[in-house]
Give the backbone structure.
Amino acid sequence: MKKRIVSVLLAGAMALSLAACGETAPAATTEAPAAEAPAAEAPAAEEKKEEPAPAVEEKKEEAPAEEAAADAGEALTLNMWCIATESDSNRHSYEAAIADMAANHPEITLNWEAFENQSYKTKIKAAVAADEMPDIFFTWSCAFLGDFVDAGKVYCLDDAYKAYASELPEVMMGNSTYGGKHYGVPLTMNIVGLFANMELLKQVGYDEIPGSYDEFIKCCDALKAANIIPFGCAGKETWCVTEYLESVIEKSVGADALNDIFLGRATWNNADVGAAVDEFQKLVNNGYFDPSGAGLTNDEVKANFMAGKYAFYMNGTWNCADFAANADFKDKVKVSEFPVINADKAKLGQLIGGPSDTLAVAASSPNAEKAADYTFELGKLICHYGYLDGCGLPAWTPYGDTSGINPLTQAVSEICAKADSYVLFGDTAMSADDATTYLSYVDQVYGCAVNGTQFIEGLASDIR
Amino acid sequence: MAEQVKVNKPSKQRRKRDLILGINIFLFLLPALFLFVSILIAPIVVSVYRSFQDWNGMSEGVFIGLKNYRKLFSNSVTLNFVVALKNSLMLAFFSVFVQLPMALGLALVLGRKPKGERFYLTVFFMPVLISTVVIGQLWLKIYNPDYGLLNSFLKLINLETWTHIWVSDPKTALGSIIVPTIWQYVGYHMLLMYAGVKGVSPDLREAAMLDGATAGQVDRYVVIPIIKPIIRVSVIFAVTGSLKAYDLVYILTGGGPQKLTEVPSTLLQEQLFLANKYGMGSAISVMLIILCFACSLLITAAFREKDK
């Protein structure tokens, strides 16, 4: 009998403890509709963009004490996620900027974590879906950030921007402006550059990067004949293939045509684009690309390029920092823009790139207002140090002594100074769904599983 | 007759005792039931519900009926579920017909108490203990086209024409995933079967030996029939594990080249977190649950049929 009583008591206690554990649940569920409200109340995209962050108001009400404490200059902790991993070119600029911020704002503790580029895209989207974003997060502008803004998950920075408008030109905010409101702090801007190992080019009689496409092809043939691989490209990371493919398309059909396609203003079913894709496949089939590159990551391909395995490497100009920091390599490398393929439609100065790297503030942050100010100040410093390091051109007005900037970044500055127009990277310009479709087709093109016609027809039917 | 019924009828006290016992059992099971429903059943129900929606994970979902399921089998460049499923089944085939026989062979040999039994047991089981990420990186280094062990070895024995870019050649990519998968989990199945082999009574072995059976015949006619339930469990684990395979595929090929090594789980990850198509991702996860469940039932039924 005793045993029975004890067992009943034990079972009751267990059931009660479970019930007690669940007591906080109702509170959480009552809060949830508030965060979801904007999306539910705003069926039309336009309406959503006009009223993007009412969730912030809800959250602010939930944490008045902490907000007040922050306003009073009391201790505050902010969390940040970014992609400045140990091996990332921007690592130093983040570290230096965060150290400056710690000195300028001792009351604010910043806990920051860096994740590898590709996995970060998964992580941040999962966090946004689960409403578990950090206060400040790195993002790519245009459609990538746009999806989060549409869902009402990003804090509007209009109020905070006023204090920094003189140092951060409105034009640089364009890619993170939705419905006339600003949602991101741009850091640096980058373009796709054609990096060349001049030591290898000299071996086949070239002192400069060929300026015309015909000459460029001759140079590739000469390199191949000398057993030097012309291009290194990481097939395992499809965005690296787009750096080549988009440049070939842009220099064949022109920047406006490509931009219209990326932004959904024109169809993919464009014969000129198909021909450009065939031209790109000709480069692949001619054996200009390292066949091993198909199984390598970008870090491995970059290391191979710096080790002298390839003559050319087309990638973002953020690489200037790493190239310039390598004592053995910095004097061998030069940067240029990809030559024009069809002079009737494209011209020099039409570039792939623009301000894309951005910091944004989560609408769910209990200290969103304070975090917004902090983000602008931090963004300015990251931009400053990034520019000095050669990680890209500044989105902010440069200040201080910039005479020590490496020659590669200066060369990029000169290219940008002559720029006619920019087309943002395709996978950034398009929505997540369209970008995934686009990258799948790019992967097929690189593997020569589809030709130019199949590429344009497939994308025209799959991307609406 | 009426008297007999009266005799069989439980007393009031006994009924009360049974009731208390029932309440006891219910209360003890309640926490586990709650966890089971909230952690396993509820997410499945939510996934099924979401699979009928076009939902980007952030805004409101729109009900679209079976459209996600129809699209799954539409064979497009972006989403080729049929190829992914075929790859998983290929993996399952090799797991069942290569990995499990290897594991059984090792278990039977080790069950005969050879010299260094413990040492071999540890060595074969070691890959199971190593993180899959580490194993993936290890095999990537083995497959590396420039300095990889495999190509270097082939060059060393004058088979340079056999060298490949293993993980990105469409002809060898899937095989490059199958080999490490088999290697990694051979030890796991071996250990399960080894435990079964060790559980076979020595008397049975001795009796068979006295009847003139060889060691091989003892294994074939005595040991294997006895450990059949364990083999069934291993087959279920191997098949469902192949259908759910993700980590090694993601690390070695990421589903490439040209999506030729995609498996349902990598497709699911892409649809959920890269394309923001949570509705489609849910449809894939529902298909995975159904497939795993169906395979388990089929395997169980097949073994039962054989037993008859």
Summary: Chain A has two domains: 2-20+75-189+356-422, 190-353+424-462. Chain A touches chain B through 44 residues (CB under 8 Å). Chain A is about 50% helix and 15% strand. The domain at 190-353+424-462 of chain A is CATH 3.40.190.10 (D-Maltodextrin-Binding Protein; domain 2).
